[in-house]
Design goal:
- With 448 residues, the chain is mostly helical.
- It has one domain: Amino acid/polyamine transporter I (Up-down Bundle), CATH 1.20.1740.
- The chain is 76% helix and 0% strand.
- The chain contains 17 helices and no strands.
- The protein starts with 15 loop residues before the first helix and ends with a helix.
- The protein binds phenylalanine.
- The site of phenylalanine has 14 residues, from α1, α2, α10 and α14.
- Keywords: Membrane, Symport, Transmembrane, Transmembrane helix, Transport.
């Protein structure tokens, strides 16, 4: 045990770069590639991007840094980490509840994340078959609906992806992630950059996409857009769910957490923007719907790929990159569930991994069935999929984010050395985050 750590000894990342790989692997996921482009499309482009960047800088990045600090200080078990730090600071034991809340949110997200990851897997295999000279790849609304109506296909995809993720984390969290991310991270970046260059060259629409993304039209914004930008800033950086706390626990005591945290936030943002700059030129080149919602990635984009020369290859490259991103985020989400189950049920790491994988599979199966066999069931007028997505992004994440902001601003920030980092974190966590989140929750509950 060292001076700044009050938790028992634990494994460490082999290098700080590994932390950046692992934390970016958690952050960069379906949120960047699937969700960000379609919510930009639904909210009219540039003004929303600005709002989102403001939420990232004002609240998201400070919370990410704060979570990593709690993890390094309190250890890798979410509830115990908050409890330990709270005890040291003579704060209430109730703060331990933030760990449980984070894990419950992660389990809810896992239920639909595993399903969408499965879709990505299905499209990847399809494009691979098309490249190898098999049938044409899935494309268009009908093919997407046909996949949604096929529970067996979706369940097989969910099973494959959950079992593989479970195997990676079965024995040793840091070891498993490190050996996977060592290959996944560089491969992902190479694929993404290659796609960006090739799409820009073949469609000639990069400039148009740029204007769409960065020229704000504030008339397209609504209060709902603020909620969406804020919720997504949390979701994309994996904050409010203790994911960053766990990865922070494996950092050495000398690591410069603010610098590492900012690197992860910058990488995550750059990749979301790159994904949008791959998707929108295709959308514009073929006059596809830019506001197509969740179907953008699975309906509009494959349609565009079929119209491009060597489109199957583009499709394969793009969906492989998306699958890698989804997979490393799924691992991160399952690790949250695993650690929390391990500490709460007092079971071994491997039993907890099995339970986390089992819970993910059951959640994924329920979401799949709710779209097919049980499609008459709704919760508060929403499908199970939409309920889980909206309940986590619009409500639970802002609430846990608010709790974490208050906790970190009282338990961690006062001990930091004076300087710009402390000023930044204090501004974000003590003022901007609580104010922004309270306004958001108020607007949702009461309406404006
Ligand atoms: N940040 C991931 C994404 O954008 C989702 C995620 C949330 C992953 C929480 C891990 C923990 O897709």
């Amino acid at each position: 045990m060292t001076a700044s750590s009050i938790a028992p000894a634990r494994p460490h990342w082999s290098s700080r770069l590994m932390f950046v790989f692992a934390a970016s692997g958690s952050a960069v996921g379906l949120g960047n590639i699937w969700k960000f482009p379609y919510i930009v499309g639904e909210n009219g482009g540039g003004a929303f991007v600005l709002l989102y960047l403001a939420c990232l800088i004002g609240l998201g990045a400070p919370l990410l840094i704060g979570e990593v600090f709690v993890g390094r200080k309190g250890g890798e078990f979410p509830a115990s980490a908050f409890l330990r730090v709270a005890r040291e600071k003579a704060m209430s034991r109730l703060w331990g509840g933030l760990g449980a809340l984070g894990a419950i949110i992660a389990l809810m997200i896992l239920a639909f994340y595993s399903v969408v990851s499965g879709w990505v897997g299905i499209y990847t295999v399809d494009f691979a078959q098309a490249v190898l000279g098999g049938d044409a790849a899935r494309s268009g609304a009908d093919a997407f609906s046909a996949m949604l109506a096929d529970p067996t296909l979706q369940l097989s995809a969910v099973t494959a992806i959950v079992v593989t993720a479970g195997l990676v984390i079965y024995y040793d969290v840091t070891g498993g992630i490190q050996s996977v991310m060592r290959y996944v991270a560089p491969l992902f970046v190479v694929l993404l950059v290659a796609m960006l260059v090739m799409v820009a060259a073949t469609t000639g629409k990069l400039g148009e996409a740029f204007t769409y993304m960065f020229q704000p039209d504030f008339s397209a914004l609504s209060v709902d857009a603020f909620g969406e930008a804020l919720g997504h800033a949390f979701f994309t950086l994996s904050v409010g769910m203790c994911g960053m706390l766990i990865y922070g626990a494996y950092l050495d005591d000398e690591a410069n957490i603010p610098r590492l945290g900012i690197s992860v936030a910058l990488l995550d943002t750059a990749i979301a923007i790159a994904a949008a700059l791959i998707i929108f030129p295709i959308v514009f080149a073929f006059n596809l719907e830019s506001n197509g919602g969740p179907g953008l990635l699975f309906i509009a984009l494959p349609q565009g790929f079929t119209l491009l020369p060597n489109g199957d290859l583009f499709g394969l490259g793009f969906f492989t990159a998306t699958l890698l991103a989804a997979f490393s985020s799924l691992i991160a989400l399952m690790i949250i569930a695993r650690h929390w189950l391990e500490e709460t049920l007092n079971v071994s790491g491997s039993s907890a991994t099995l339970m986390a994988a089992g819970a993910t599979w059951i959640g994924g199966a329920a979401v799949t069935l709710s779209m097919t066999v049980w499609d008459s069931i709704s919760i508060l007028g929403l499908s199970l999929f939409d309920f889980l997505d909206q309940a986590t992004s619009s409500w639970l994440l802002p609430i846990s984010g608010l709790g974490m902001a208050i906790f970190v601003s009282r338990a961690i920030v006062p001990d930091m050395p004076e300087g710009p980092v402390k000023i930044y974190l204090r501004a974000g966590l003590t003022y901007i985050a609580p104010l922004g989140i309270v306004v958001l929750i108020w607007s949702k509950a009461v309406g404006f």
